[in-house]
């Protein structure tokens, strides 16, 4: 297998300790769990998505574990502005604050709360199961561009996280790029549903949810590859990454780094385990492989 | 980690344990370690964490929407069960069990299944004591009530004064946060933290260590996966008894 | 588990022997393999998609087996008009002819070749990896409607098979319904890619392919559920079905029957095995459960 | 069924067996039954089915784009391998192997690994005979050439006249369709079909029994999965020697 040389990593304006980033919404609500992920080897962490008002999330069940992935509809629970307190405990760490809103003004407002503490922002325009937010605005290139511009007023690196639930993900990627995004994160979860045949009802409280984990890896690789052909800003691959080989594959598709979420369920120490396999003193430079599958 | 979609179970029997507490039995036993919990789906309302009081039952204290629907359910109705989840107690030797209120439920199997158990049980009043008779047949039960209507008049931690902790190999504790913090303080003073295990409660959504809603300060451990059972030592400097986070992640006292 | 009573099945104008239909493109190029599937328990079979000209398909690799599914880019290889000969050998059998074209005229022409032999047509407006065909027209509601109308001129039942690679699958479902479709089949494969890290190239000859099998089951259930809320014609569920329980789940989401493709790889006798589990003399009527998860 | 993405192998050695046939060795052995095949990915061109002539090699007859690129490859270059796929021969007792042209390659391991083999080998001319020397060291080899430049002058089926079929427990055959049909006819006449196994070739795209491109009439069996080895009995009334389907599914003679 290919190994990478351990070098300082700078991706999308964020200086990270390695190429592996904790994905938004996974153990991301408290400073203590975010620190834990950094200690266990994450190169940077993205927080739970923070919005304009506190939200308690959807009624349960909010998540089910499938054979090859997870399906969740958390409903964007978050402490809103009070998350400032958590962030204080993380000052100096590579923390990207995920934010969401229903329009550019809300994105601007929420970003403002964290402008002095975040290393960067990640715009969640892609959660597939919260009405009025996420993918409901992330399927419209004009709104995505406007939200990106609004957040960029704070002069911080801005990553825009895209939904795969669109006919053409590149049109959204290009909108983010035009809005001044420093990187694109692809992908958020894939809209999905399972039904309990015993209860004769959808298993998630919100009925619809988002599929993540291994099942969506081939979809995520495809999106990264498409975006690499269409856009010129850095891409962070996300979706089903669960081993070092997957990281290399995402990089070859065009990703500068990856985010990892669901794999935590099978292995809470996933970051240190992937690092062990991915890096070696005689490894090659990531530059050699990022996008190399485009030939 | 148990996996998959909720398993559908049918309720077979409903037993009222006290005015506010009800046990619901279902048609399936879940292989589980004592201390593990399940996520109980009350269709149309919510999914909530519950200890397995028996392998085929949960014992519910009515506090809000989901628990209110649960205690009103009838045989023949259905529930969805995910799990069991979490780590469970490590039980050996002579055991001291200390419970407060509905916290007796997660410890019931300790009293019923282990050979040498002393059970300290607290409740607000005599009629809120649960499983008292059943446990008395199996182990040495001592009672405390806040109003003195049964046993020792005061908190359950007070019962510890009459206990020689050195005699015990394992100490298991479950109850409301303030009760557990005060027990923890006593055990700490009497140098018995090492053999103690506390069954923690935090707001849970996923049950499998991914959503982060049940994380505790300062270590960022997940109650659902790293717990719910924690050694007293590891809780000394924790948020226990000080605050917890609600469904939105906001700190509450 | 729920079992169904073995009753005569009529779905979308097709009278089938049971609720399980062989999906298009799977062992569907010769009369002999289609007969074999009928013998082994399929209630009806859909042929390989037939188009206006013979095609040899994409260069290989055309298919890879993944842990939880398949990824393919066959490239619509087909013998075109000569498929008439194969069909002759199947007269009287429950055979649905899958057809594709680049526009309504071509759909009309191809359907005409088989109008006297097919029990029904399935319009492939959803293959995600053949340029000018399939999903390239299936993402446009107006074209889908026009193609459906063109095929309906032959006065045969017409099923329209949809792609999940759209922002809103219900808009396409409604277009098919307006065009006179007798049923909607949901879903075709999900656009995907895997890269060989050893070769540093996408593994499929066509680079992009379609994901099928278990991995996409939650996506297919979601699409069926959405379509059931939006449309009033029958829905046939397709995507990742591999056991009797999956059939029940699809039905609860709103499907009258299911198509099965990739599961053949793990078990060539999948049809008879599912039948054994799905039907019982004391089973309930499918009417009781179709769409019941909508509450 | 072997699974997954193509395994990348590096070519270690290239051996020219005859003017049109080349063996390519790589750095990995594939555990396989004799008769199984792999799908060989020649990046940028195509993926094609090939028997494993050795556990770590394929032997290629140059016929078109992919095979032309393959025979021109050099040590250090890479291939992608999926498989091994298919069923393989059932080999026991005294074995008669009958090959035509490059059909010797899939039978090579029969000659090298089985104890008691008679090998009938046909080719157009003497210099198109492959593996002749190597096999002669291991078994009783008899040769037929169309032009008489070596051995018997005529088709390999002609060699059967001098063979007492009753002596053999297993008969394995591989070669072009017309050659296999004529061998099948001889075996049928001499009531030896039951112990015969033929290695079939059909257009293959998936290799795992799903795409349908390799299906044979009249049973709809997949050569890739139900085969490539079929008993002579099951082929009697088949399309063998009459027609096959090309990549588009069109019948060709
Ligand atoms: C590991 C564990 C085991 C538990 N075992 C038992 C048991 O055996 N018997 C029993 O009666 N109770 C048990 N509980 C507590 C029980 O989960 C809550 O009482 C229940 O969730 C309340 O739901 P509700 O809808 O009735 O109340 P709500 O009105 O929704 O909330 C009332 C209060 O209950 C708590 N709560 C609500 N939802 C949750 C949730 N998803 N996770 C955690 N706490 C929540 C919160 O403190 C909330 O303020 C356990 C909790 C945990 C974490
Ligand atoms: C199970 C099996 C084992 C085989 N083993 C060997 C072997 O050990 N050595 C060897 O030299 N050849 C073997 N072949 C034949 C080999 O696959 C073809 O010669 C090769 O595919 C030709 O590819 P091409 O691109 O060079 O030729 P093309 O120009 O693409 O085609 C030339 C002819 O080769 C055949 N062919 C092409 N592609 C395929 C395909 N995907 N599947 C089947 N046939 C195809 C067709 O008859 C075609 O007309 C085997 C075939 C099968 C089915
Ligand atoms: C429990 C859970 C919560 C999530 N919450 C968020 C969120 O708040 N914001 C967001 O942008 N993505 C969220 N996601 C999506 C993940 O960040 C990620 O995009 C997705 O899970 C795919 O990556 P994975 O397969 O590695 O998990 C969540 C995913 C899960 C499983
Ligand atoms: C090898 C292969 C070939 C296919 N060819 C076609 C086709 O020609 N026309 C079509 O409409 N769908 C085609 N499909 C899609 C299937 O019919 C089906 O929609 C998809 O595979 C999802 O179902 P499954 O998960 O049961 O396989 C093909 C799928 C596979 C795996
Ligand atoms: S409940 Fe989700 S991490 Fe514990
Ligand atoms: S090659 Fe696809 S079925 Fe045999």
Automatic annotation (TrEMBL), chains A, C:
The keyword Cytoplasm applies. It is an enzyme of class 1 (oxidoreductase). This is Dihydroorotate dehydrogenase. The keyword Oxidoreductase applies. Keywords: Cytoplasm, Flavoprotein, FMN, Oxidoreductase, Pyrimidine biosynthesis. The active site is at 127 (nucleophile). It comes from Methanospirillum stamsii. Heterotetramer of 2 PyrK and 2 PyrD type B subunits. Its cofactor is FMN. Belongs to the dihydroorotate dehydrogenase family. Type 1 subfamily. Substrate binds at residues 48, 72-76, 124, 188-189. It catalyses: (S)-dihydroorotate + A = orotate + AH2. Catalyzes the conversion of dihydroorotate to orotate. GO terms for biological process: 'de novo' pyrimidine nucleobase biosynthetic process; 'de novo' UMP biosynthetic process. GO terms for molecular function: dihydroorotate dehydrogenase activity. Its main location: cytoplasm. It is found in: Cytoplasm. Binds 1 FMN per subunit. GO terms for cellular component: cytoplasm. Residues 13-278 form the Dihydroorotate dehydrogenase catalytic domain. Pathway: Pyrimidine metabolism; UMP biosynthesis via de novo pathway. It comes from the Archaea. Its EC number is 1.3.-.-. FMN binds at residues 48-49, 124, 161, 187, 213, 239-240, 261-262.
Automatic annotation (TrEMBL), chains B, D:
It holds the Pfam family DHODB_Fe-S_bind. Its cofactor is [2Fe-2S] cluster. Binds 1 [2Fe-2S] cluster per subunit. Residues 202-232 form the Dihydroorotate dehydrogenase electron transfer subunit iron-sulphur cluster binding domain. Keywords: 2Fe-2S, Iron, Iron-sulfur, Metal-binding. GO terms for biological process: pyrimidine nucleotide biosynthetic process. GO terms for molecular function: 2 iron, 2 sulfur cluster binding; flavin adenine dinucleotide binding; metal ion binding. It comes from the Archaea. [2Fe-2S] cluster binds at residues 206, 211, 214, 224. PANTHER family: DIHYDROOROTATE DEHYDROGENASE B (NAD(+)), ELECTRON TRANSFER SUBUNIT, DIHYDROOROTATE DEHYDROGENASE B (NAD(+)), ELECTRON TRANSFER SUBUNIT-RELATED. This is Dihydroorotate dehydrogenase electron transfer subunit. It comes from Methanospirillum stamsii.
């Amino acid at each position: 297998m290919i190994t990478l040389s351990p070098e300082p990593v700078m991706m999308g304006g964020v200086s990270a300790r390695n190429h592996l980033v904790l994905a938004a919404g996974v153990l991301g609500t408290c400073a203590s769990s975010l620190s834990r992920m950094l200690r266990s080897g994450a190169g940077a962490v993205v927080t739970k998505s923070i919005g304009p008002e506190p939200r308690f999330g959807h009624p349960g069940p909010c998540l089910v574990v499938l054979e090859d992935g997870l399906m969740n509809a958390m409903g964007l629970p978050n402490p809103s502005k009070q998350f400032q307190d958590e962030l204080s405990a993380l000052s100096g760490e590579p923390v990207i604050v995920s934010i969401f809103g229903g329009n550019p003004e809300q994105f601007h407002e929420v970003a403002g709360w964290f402008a002095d503490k975040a290393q960067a922002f990640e715009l969640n325009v892609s959660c597939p199961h919260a009405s009025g937010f996420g993918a409901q605005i992330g399927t419209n290139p004009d709104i995505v561009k406007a939200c990106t511009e609004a957040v960029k007023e704070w002069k911080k690196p801005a990553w825009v996280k895209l939904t795969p639930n669109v006919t053409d993900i590149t049109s959204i990627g290009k909108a983010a790029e035009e809005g001044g995004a420093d990187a694109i994160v692809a992908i958020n979860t894939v809209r999905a549903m399972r039904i309990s045949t015993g209860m004769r009802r959808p298993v998630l409280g919100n009925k619809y949810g988002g599929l993540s984990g291994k099942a969506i890896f081939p979809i995520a690789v495809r999106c990264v590859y498409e975006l690499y052909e269409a856009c010129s800003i850095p891409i962070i691959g996300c979706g089903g990454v669960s081993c070092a080989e997957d990281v290399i594959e995402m990089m070859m598709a065009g990703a500068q780094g990856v985010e990892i979420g669901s794999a935590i369920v099978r292995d809470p120490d996933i970051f240190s385990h992937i690092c062990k396999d991915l890096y070696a003193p005689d490894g090659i430079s990531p530059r050699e492989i990022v996008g190399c599958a485009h030939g | 980690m148990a996996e998959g979609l909720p398993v559908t179970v049918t309720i077979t029997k409903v037993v009222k344990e006290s005015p506010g507490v009800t046990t619901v039995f279902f048609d399936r036993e879940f292989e589980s370690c004592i201390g593990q919990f399940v996520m109980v789906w009350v269709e149309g309302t919510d999914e909530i964490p519950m200890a397995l009081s028996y392998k085929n039952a949960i014992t519910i204290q009515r506090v809000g929407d989901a628990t209110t629907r649960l205690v009103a359910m009838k045989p023949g109705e259905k529930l969805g069960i995910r799990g069991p989840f979490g780590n469970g107690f490590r039980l050996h030797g002579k055991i001291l069990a200390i419970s407060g209120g509905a916290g007796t439920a997660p410890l019931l199997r300790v009293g019923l299944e282990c050979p040498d158990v002393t059970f300290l049980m607290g409740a607000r009043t005599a009629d809120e004591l649960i499983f008292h008779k059943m446990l008395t047949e199996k182990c040495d039960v001592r009672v405390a009530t806040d109003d003195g209507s049964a046993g020792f008049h005061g908190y359950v931690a007070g019962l510890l004064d009459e206990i020689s902790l050195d005699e015990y190999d394992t100490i298991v504790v479950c109850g409301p946060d303030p009760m557990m913090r005060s027990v923890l303080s006593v055990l700490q003073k009497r140098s018995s933290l090492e053999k103690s295990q506390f069954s923690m409660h935090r707001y849970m959504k996923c049950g499998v260590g991914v959503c982060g809603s049940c994380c505790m300060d300062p270590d960022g451990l997940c109650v659902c996966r790293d717990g719910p059972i924690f050694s007293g030592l590891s809780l000394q400097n924790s948020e226990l008894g000080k605050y917890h986070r609600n469904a939105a992640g906001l700190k509450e006292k």
